[in-house]
Amino acid sequence: MIAELGHFALILALCVAALLGTLPLLGAHYHRREWVVLARPAAQVFFLLVAASFVALAWSFYVNDFSVTYVAEHSNSLLPTMYRLAAVWGGHEGSLLLWIFMLAGWTVAVAQLSHTLDETMVARVLGVLGLVATGLLLFVLLTSNPFGRMLPAAENGRDLNPLLQDPGLVFHPPMLYMGYVGFSVAFAFAIAALLSGRLDAAWARWSRPWTTTAWIFLTLGIGLGSWWAYYELGWGGWWFWDPVENASFMPWLIGTALIHSLAVTEKRGSFKSWTVLLAIGAFSLSLLGTFLVRSGVLTSVHAFATDPRRGIFILVLLALVIGSSLTLYAWRAPKVALGGSFALLSRETMLLIGNVLLVVAAGSVLLGTLYPLIVDALSLGKISVGPPYFNTVFVPLMAPVLFLMAAAPLARWKHADVKQMARGLWIAAVLAVGAAIAIPLAMGGWTVLTGLGTMLAIWVGTSMGLQIAKRLKSGIPPLSFWGMQLGHLGIAVFVVGVTLVGGFQEEKDVRMEPGDTVLVGGHEFKFMGVTQVQGPNYSAARGQFEVTQGGRRSSTLYPEKRNYVSSSMPMTEAAIDAGLTRDVYVSLGEPLEGQAWAVRVYFKPFVDWIWGGCLLMALGGLCAVSDRRYRLRMRAPAAALQGATT
Amino acid sequence: MKKWKKRGAIVAGGVAVVGVAAALVLNALNSNIALYVTPSDVVAGKAPHGQAFRIGGMVKDGSLKRDNLTVHFVVTDLAKEIPVSYTGILPDLFKEGKGAVVQGRLGPDGNFTASEVLAKHDENYMPPAAQDALDKAKKPQGVAAQ
Prior knowledge:
The structure holds two protein chains of two kinds.
Chain A: H1 2-30, H2 33-36, H3 39-62, H4 69-74, H5 81-86, H6 92-112, H7 119-143, H8 167-196, H9 201-232, H10 243-268, H11 272-294, H12 308-332, H13 347-377, E1 382-385, H14 387-407, H15 418-443, H16 448-472, H17 479-504, E2 506-512, E3 517-520, E4 523-534, E5 538-549, E6 552-557, E7 560-564, E8 570-573, E9 575-577, E10 582-591, E11 597-605, H18 608-625, H19 628-645
Antiparallel strand pairs in A: 2-11, 3-4, 4-5, 5-6, 5-7, 7-8, 9-10, 10-11
Helix pairs in contact in A: 1-3, 1-7, 3-6, 6-7, 6-8, 7-8, 7-12, 8-9, 8-11, 9-10, 9-18, 10-11, 10-13, 11-12, 13-14, 14-16, 15-16, 16-17, 17-18
Chain B: H1 3-32, E1 33-37, H2 39-43, E2 53-59, E3 65-67, E4 70-76, E5 81-87, E6 99-106, E7 112-118, H3 128-145
Parallel strand pairs in B: 1-2, 5-7
Antiparallel strand pairs in B: 2-4, 2-6, 3-4, 4-5, 6-7
């Protein structure tokens, strides 16, 4: 019964979304106020209906209603409650419902928080969001209904994929989707601005906090996913250039370009067309990501059962969104007034180059991701594009971005003064080059990549110090300034992590019998043996390792090899002793003859800096959106209105 | 500087960036693509020489042998078989009778030395390359039977 209610709510949500996607837009065009004012209430009802539907599905999981096919396929009565709820988005249908739930959340947030925006603009923004929602709701209802029943009901469920039974995975998809879907707001603002012909600084100012918020979630989502892959997959890697990782990374790259371009549009009035194009691009790539992940054309951890209808449906949706928004852009963009002019050497130019590099980098990732699909579609054979491709292309493209990232904030708008910039930056340059030689040598060996990485990280770090010192001379800077600094610090910290773990990690696959020791990265690992343990829905062989460093005991690690009862899937559960400057990591391979096991041991210097960097970036974004001026400007018109009425 | 000159410089800069990126991409693609080949193709000598490639297929039942950390097994498309050896820890879902993809090089003795073994993350899942190899090998037989 509950499942049917959920299904019914979803159908009603489709009707409301269709209404939201048409009447307010038409009303804005034909100046019919009674249609325009429909936007807000429609958005609220739409949110409530989708929320009801989502809760209905979550309830079906909670009470183990195995007559619902989707529940039977992704849950089990032995599954702990937390994972039963996470199982709601453990499969294709539920994760799409989560997508729509997020979209509804963003839509209602725009409706609630935009009271200072002019009514027609709100109607247009909400209308565009309604159109997007209509497309996705049709997709869910026609091809991927999570509320389908099966008769007779299953005795018990097939259980959630053991890989997904992990706290990291409870939060990774919602975070990622919040980010993905959040770009729909930036997209809706851009389309609304194109429709109204009002592409100005005010539009950029409205759009900025929304875009940054989406970017924060996406950053956290990607960071969580990478962290999960690191400790859960048992391979010790943090990024695999897996097509699905790429699918989330491309919107991030474009989104990063977008938040910087929006800053220029707001402050200087330049780059308007470029900003609009980026907003369209970021959301299109989010949709493309959904298509790639959900259509089953990609084969990876994330690809669920293949259904060609789904792929075609999303492809059509994608073509409609990209096609119609680019047509609108082509039609309207020539009318956009040019912004303030700037010299060849100015902050604008540096931001523009950084932007172009980010877009090109996203393009190269896109190419590497789609190339095997295109080759396959043209029946030219089956190929795979491996991580070396991405590394060789990506590093040279990102190095100049990092270089500019340190220099641009010191450059003036309009016209930068080289001498004045050089006065500060030479210190940063000297320190960076010195560190690039010294640090890798001190850690045990210089390579081009470790040298480059350290140089860029120190270059960014010291330049930040210069910027802060310079800015403090003219009083306490606003939160948005600290936001930028924190975000850039996050990048520097991230680069330190990537460089040092890439250059100095040690890995050993060894055969160990109880009592054997192995030395990795200055740590001695002693294998104490394996015992059998019982979990709620699995049984496991648990190994015990005593780790000592320089004769001192540093930790005891208990890696597990689990076997999940209902799916009979084996799972490696790595054991990690995490630290600020290094992780030690042990995972059990397979049992060999007698008491011996194949064991994988890692020493990972500074690996946690990678996710620390992501966290700092997100914190930076949080500072930027909490800046007073967004709230002030929101309040100012309201105060003026009150003044007028009293 | 005149406006058109400045604009020209920016455009030239953009073209240069894209050009360099394209060169990087082409170069990287050239050396980092692994071709998927079926066991039948390998036996027919259609596999690339002196270059890493991937074989998709099924791990033959009863073919798995361990020699400390080195494992030997046979990948088959049910028509032809290729012996494979790999040193290291196999992925969780690697099993006899299931699909797998191996990446590596073919030795002169016809032995394939894998540097990477991929098995996917769901017990019912068959890597498409493995499925494809099975389908291809099946097809001619099916026609002959009719």
